[in-house]
Amino acid sequence: MNSLFDDDFHTGDVFAVRKAKLAQMRAQGSDPFRQNCPQMHTSAQAISSYTENSDQQFSIAGRIVVFRDMGKAAFIKLLDRDGKIQVYVSQNDLDESTYAEFKKFDIGDIIGISGPLFKTKTEEITVRAKIITLVSKSLRPLPEKWHGLVNDDQIYRQRYLDLIVNAESRDRAFKRTQIIKEIRRFLWNREYTEVETPMLHHIAGGAAAKPFITHMNALNHDFYLRIALELYLKRMLIAGFDRVFEIGRVFRNEGLSRKHNPEFTMIELYQAYTDHFGMMELVKSLILHLAMTVLGTTTITRYDGVKIELGGEWNQANYGDLVTQALDDPHWFSYSREKKLQVCQQRSIEIDPHAEDFEITNAIYSKLVEPNLINPTFVLQLPKELCPLAKLNQNNSQLLDVFELCINGQEIAPAYSEQNDPFIQRQMFETQIGEDIQNLDNDFLRALEYGMPPAGGMGIGIDRLVVLLTGAESIRDVILFPSLKPEQE
User: Fold this and answer.
1) Within 10 A of 65 (CB to CB), how many other CB atoms are there?
2) From the CB of residue 184, how many other CB atoms can be counted at a distance below 10 Å?
């Protein structure tokens, strides 16, 4: 079994030694778990403020990640939210007892430092410690191999350790925050209103997904954790909020994979008096804005080194054309369901034998088409069975006015010309749910009867977007604390 540390027995020994140090400190009347610590500067602020021959004092705080003891002096490095900074600690700058206590510090301890800056012979800007304080004792040692964790289960289960020792993980976490901030800034600048809608729903609507179920004691009623944001945001369109969006958690009780997590973050937005072509312009402008403001480039690099250029032309292709091209069979859509299953069997394409006709075609799309759409591609005119909340195409009522934006072999953003005819919407819902009428959202249909303006709507999985922009290998790499089984003792 892989271990988080190189040697579990050694780890246990270190833990015992550090607990003994803590007991000794407390016996001497010192408690290292301080209530507060002055942190006037981050590492980056201090480094950027350096000027030669200045006596300015800088107060920083952070975790010791490097400790080079040279007897009467030591060089340490502190890690804070901005990165690392070197500190020079000499017994000539501290009183004897303080320096003696400092020599007992361990890698992982959190300390406060005050002093001026200087440059070493290697031109590294360094803090000369004049005041040094232990503010939180680290009892457990950090991983000994100072290049991050290598055990995937421990990386995801003890993300806090991964973020301490893995600069790439830290950078990705900060970029995720920047991406969400810039999404908000972009939409605010386009006069969108951010709203919050319920996470507990009477009906699991807005998407085709298996929900989580919970019980509210106060109402003595079961609720579903939301699987989509759509239906409440459309109620806001009906209420006169012409441009609305929400960023929030969504829950789907389905599989785990490199591309899926049952609990994920999503943005949905709706704009009145436009359509899916308006959404096409918006999503392209948004993603280019994120690339330039967060990454500083429109060229993104995958984990395997493949580069994707976002600044070039974004392709457009019809769903049906892509399927027939992938199969090299222009007659595919004229086949019966049984014939399609037979073709799949002949080509060793695994398909559920009970799948409906449109599901067979969509499985072909998912297996043979989508993984190969690496450069930005808008896939248009999907079958009507796939999106019951979208407008039917005026020229072909079997198709929808929608697109799926695919980049890097996966869907990034579906968008619709939204259905606002309450009669057609009811018919589409009833076709989707069959005899299960208890799952018909009659309040939403009643709201539509008051009139909803024509609108374009779009959803983006934030986690997938972060995977794309940061070059992560898996969705688990961009979710701070992904879904895992309970840890076995």
Assistant:
1) 16
2) 15
> What is the distance between the alpha carbons of residues 395 and 399, in angstroms, rounded to a whole number?
9
| 281 within 8 A of 270, measured Cβ to Cβ | no
Cα-Cα end-to-end distance for the chain? 14
What is the sign, positive or negative, of the torsion defined by CA atoms of 265, 271, 272, 274? negative
Strand order in the sheet with 315-318: 193-194, 243-251, 263-272, 455-461, 410-417, 402-407, 377-380, 315-318
Whose tokens are 């778990």? That residue is 33
Mind giving me the DSSP string for 432-455?
HHTT-GGG--HHHHHHHTT----E
CATH number of the CATH domain containing 116: 2.40.50.140
**Cα separation of 203 and 211, whole Å?**
10
DSSP states of 103-144 = TT--TT-EEEEEE-EEE-TT--EEEE-SEEEEEE---SPPPS
User: Residue 147 CA to chain centroid, in angstroms?
Assistant: 23
Residue 289 to residue 385: CA distance in whole angstroms: 33
Q: Is residue 47 part of a domain?
A: yes
Q: Which residues contact 51 (CB under 8 A, 6 or more apart)?
A: none
Give the integer Cα–Cα distance in Å for 59 and 41: 6
pLDDT at position 147 is: 52
Is residue 226 a contact partner of residue 251, using CB atoms and an 8 Å limit? Answer: yes
pTM of the model: 0.91
Residue at which a domain ends, from 114, 146, 178: 146
Q: What confidence score (pLDDT) does residue 6 get? A: 40
Residue ranges of the chain whose pLDDT lies below 50: 1-9, 146
CA-to-CA distance for 187 and 332, rounded, in angstroms? 41
Q: What is the DSSP letter of 374?
A: -
For the chain, how long is the longest CA-to-CA vector?
89
Q: Are 65 and 111 in contact (CB under 8 A)?
A: no
CATH number, domain of 271, equals: 3.30.930.10
